[in-house]
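Mods, move this if it's the wrong board.
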Amino acid sequence: MSGSALGPAAEQAIAWMVRLRSGRTDARQEARFQRWLAQDPANAQAWEQLQRGMGGHYEVARRAPQVLRDALLQPQLGRRDVLRGLGGLALFGGGLWMGVRSDSARMLTADLRTGTGERRTVTLADGSRLSLNAGTSLDVDFSAGQRLLRLYQGALVIEVAPDARRPLLVRSEQGDARALGTRFLVEQLQGATRVVVLEHSVRASVPDGAWLDLAEGQAALLRGPRVELCSDSQVYRADWLEGRLSVLDEPLQAVIEALRPYRPGLMRVDPEVRNLRVQGVFPLDDSERTLAALEDTMPIRVRRYGSWLTLIERR
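Not the wrong board. Structure tokens:
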């Protein structure tokens, strides 16, 4: 399964159209575009499909925030240029491109979803207690032989009710976390899945067959063909249950990613400051206070454009 229905060539094609329709194109930009087209037949094919405008309203609209964030990182483009490019694409209502893949549709119509700034706790049919972080979506698939939760985005913590006949699995893009009578966290990251055992134990596995049993307090990343054991405790990752974002020496970019589900609009971090190290405990339910604390203690400036865009750059 995939949380992103567009491949790299497709995403790059959208980004190129934003640039080329921004009104700031010059000869060097055009030359770079032509080199990109020639690099790989997939690039030319993606560009041709985009020009033809093949259906798929939802997927491009879903990807629009990421396209805008990427375009804003281009130093030669201002906000008006990017918006002009997006307007040319008609990303927010036109008939543009690519079919809607089932996984993307499932994220929109999942059994359980939380919105911006929303945490939710539910009791499942088997008695398991499930907590969802903001910006989370998943399907619940219980049958006579198993209990399966399909996580598409976000993070969950589940306290599993015992059932000797039906194992409980949380399935992410990278693999499975199987409960062995336990309470644990699963988080869908970009290109990886984090599993943290809060009580008892969990078996983490990937489709290629590799697996690892994790004891209480242990954590692992499911990435590609590997299950990578984390060297330090990751139990603090579940602090969002209490409305806290606990950070132990992580890059600023990771902190902002954790804050995104709690703040409306787009958040852009300048590449110059993405890797600044952060440590502290911040309130998730007051993103303004968190951003102010980061600004007070780090060499950054936070610029706000209403509720739709927040820029974080070097001071």
